[in-house]
Amino acid sequence: MSAPEHLRARSEVSVIVPARNEEACLGACLASLTPQSGLAFDITVVDDGSTDQTRAIAESFPGVHVISPPPLPQGWTGKNNAAAAGAAAAYAPWLLFTDADTVHLPGSLAASLAEASQQQAALLSYSPQQDVRGFWEKSVMPVIFAELASTYRPRDVSDPASPAAAANGQYLLISREAYQAVGGHAAVATSLLEDVALARAVKKSGRKIFFRYGGDCVQTRMYRSFGQLREGWTKNLAVLFPSAFLLAIRRAAEFLLILALLALAIGAASRGLAGLAIAVAVIGILMYGLFLRRIRKAHFSWDSTLFAILGLPIFAYLLARSRLSYKKGTVLWKGRSYGKALSGRLSRGTN
Q1: What are the tens digits of pLDDT across the range 321-342?
Q2: Rounded distance, CA 119 to CA 322, Å?
Q3: Cα–Cα distance measured from residue 318 to residue 262, given in angstroms and rounded to the nearest whole number
């Protein structure tokens, strides 16, 4: 079901939701988007070959426009093909690309457009508040997002004088003028990290981008099982962190050193070596404090932050797995294989 064209033509923002087998989360996403207020907007869900109830869920929301993308061109990723199809069907001068696993707070759509105008940004992107549940999510997600916050610092990304560029595809608002000027998703068609690639293209064009933590506007639960988490980060980590093996070694060594200091302090105390035990414990506490300081940048709850130390070896494993998967050409995502096409470009540093 779609909104009448004369209403869509008055939209200030066209919201585009690429969706492939998203029956677990699409309903909540659309339920948070459809009642947005303060501006005229339209919503298009691009059903990317789903085999579950994704399309039926999308069509159950009155006014939501549901389309299918064209056949996947050679070399393109599925999400880029779906996003490009959504953009081609859009009317508004601003496009919001958002994932099906997001939940949008009331008034956030109007607020984001106002913020883009205030910042004079051609592209605005929020890093959503992460909803994490269970051991795997609570331990490793803070570690990953803290590393992202250190590598892609929002202050640098939003500074026109800095070459740093980044965006989060879960919430990417871009003017139609800028989108078309840089070639849209067609220009980054082969990238599995299309959000960052698009941000780089926009910034390289001389237009301003604005990026920040956006927990006041949007939330997400990215993965609902360890299998999904492993597949998703295997797809992303080697592209996000080009020196993935080196980073894996550093984070594994950090974990082992903190663990070794703890064991040494306990061992010294059990032998009555109080001075040694205290000295080693102080060093261990200082290292753990520096770790917590880094993790706090990721904006997770206190319990996830406190126990994120257990996520360090998991992060190291995922980094190594991601790099090896690209090297072997065995990267999978949502039933599609991309590794063989991308492994050469990754080794040359062109992703």
Answers
A1: 999 999 888 888 888 887 655 5
A2: 36
A3: 25
State pTM to two decimals: 0.90
Q: Which amino acid is at 136?
A: W
Q: What is residue 140's predicted lDDT score, i.e. its pLDDT?
A: 97
Phi, psi (deg, nearest 5) at residue 187 = -75, -20
- Token pair of 182 as six digits: 């840089």
- φ, ψ for residue 210 (rounded to 5)? -135, 130
Q: How far apart are CA 149 and CA 215, in angstroms?
A: 14
Q: List the domains of the chain with CATH numbers.
A: 5-128+168-224 (3.90.550.10), 244-347 (no CATH)
Q: What is the DSSP letter of 2?
A: -
Q: Across 207-253, where does the E strand assignment appear?
A: 209-213, 218-220
Distances (CA, A) of 196 to 156, 171, 172, 192, 295: 14, 12, 10, 9, 22
Q: In 3-state terms, what secondary structure has residue 16?
A: strand
Is 135 in contact with 226 (CB distance < 8 Å)? no
- β-strand pairing of 13-19 with 41-47: parallel
Report the pLDDT averaged over residues 177-196: 95
Token readout for 204 is 């390289």
CA-CA distance, 183 to 142, in Å (whole number)?
34
Give CA separation, 150 vs 224, 234, 302, in Å: 26, 20, 19
Q: Are 127 and 220 in contact (CB under 8 A)?
A: no
CB-based burial label for 317 (10 Å; 0-12, 13-18, 19+)? middle
Non-local (6+) Cβ contacts of 41 within 8 A are 11, 12, 13, 14, 15, 92, 109
Residue 209, phi-psi category: left (phi > 0), alpha (psi -120 to 50), beta (remainder): beta
If phi > 0 it is left, if psi is from -120 to 50 it is alpha, else beta; for residue 335 that is left
CA 117 and chain centroid, separation: 23
Rounded distance between C-alpha atoms, residue 184 and residue 170, angstroms: 16
279 residue type, one letter: A
E strand residue ranges, 37-190: 41-47, 65-67, 94-98, 102-104, 123-127, 129-130, 171-175
Q: Which amino acid is at 184?
A: G
